[in-house]
Amino acid sequence: KAGVTQTPRYLIKTRGQQVTLSCSPISGHRSVSWYQQTPGQGLQFLFEYFSETQRNKGNFPGRFSGRQFSNSRSEMNVSTLELGDSALYLCASREQKGGNTIYFGEGSWLTVV
Amino acid sequence: GQNIDQPTEMTATEGAIVQINCTYQTSGFNGLFWYQQHAGEAPTFLSYNVLDGLEEKGRFSSFLSRSKGYSYLLLKELQMKDSASYLCAVRDETDSWGKFQFGAGTQVVVTP
Up-side HSE of residue B94: CA atoms within 13 Å toward CB? Predict the structure, then answer.
């Protein structure tokens, strides 16, 4: 069974631009969540989607948004990029809302210059 | 609010045992998880505790005391490849969606 797949793996953007990251969950997993990881703040929860609906949201500004498609694939978007948005963005999937373990993808390394 | 605390770094010798403690204060609780993360890689699942007691999985064991808000991960017979960051995470179930909250991670350095 393939794992969680994230694209792109690495990208460099300029301040003010926007970025879209993509995540394909493990086959059969319907829940997708997104995390931001930085050396100073650790792993921070962004949001979780299930059945194309956002079910939970972390404490991030509205510049961070996401969506989920009918095939459970998810995208997250960051608009008006700031230098502080440079981070590893991790996607994780689990089977359903009752699924107790989340499995991470390799992540997307975003650098904002 | 949520608070998950674990030590920043621990150093141990190859073949030794290391115990990583994690304390948590959360508004809801539905499971304590440990993940291992090597530098530049994604976190990988190690163990899960929802009831009090010890769960053993090969060289790794995890313990939970819900009344004390405390868990530990025990790594035995340390190998060089165990050098990594170990993340403690709590699944908060104040609602049915149970989001995960992570600690900052404990960097374990295994020396020869």
Answer: 10
Give dist(CA A76, CA A63) in Å, integer: 10
The number of angstroms, rounded, from the C-alpha of B20 to the middle of its chain's C-alpha atoms is 7
Tokens of B54: 């010890």
Tell which residue, A66, A33, A34, A69, has the closest CA to residue A51: A69
Cβ-defined contact of A90 to B99 (cutoff 8 Å)? no
Q: Is A84 helix (H, G, I), strand (E, B) or coil?
A: helix
Instruction: Looking at the complex, report in whole angstroms how far the Cα of residue B112 sits from the nearest Cα belonging to chain A.
Output: 26
What does DSSP say about strands B106-111 and B9-13: parallel, antiparallel, or unpaired?
Answer: parallel
Tokens of B79: 């190998």
Q: What is the mean pLDDT of chain A?
A: 92
pLDDT tens across A33-53, in order?
A: 999 999 878 899 999 998 899
B93, with CB counted inside 10 A (0-12, 13-18, 19+), is middle
| Contact at CB, A33 and B100, closer than 8 angstroms | yes
* Cβ contact B42:A107 at 8 Å: yes
pLDDT per position as a tens digit, B41-80: 889 999 999 899 999 999 999 999 999 999 999 999 999 9
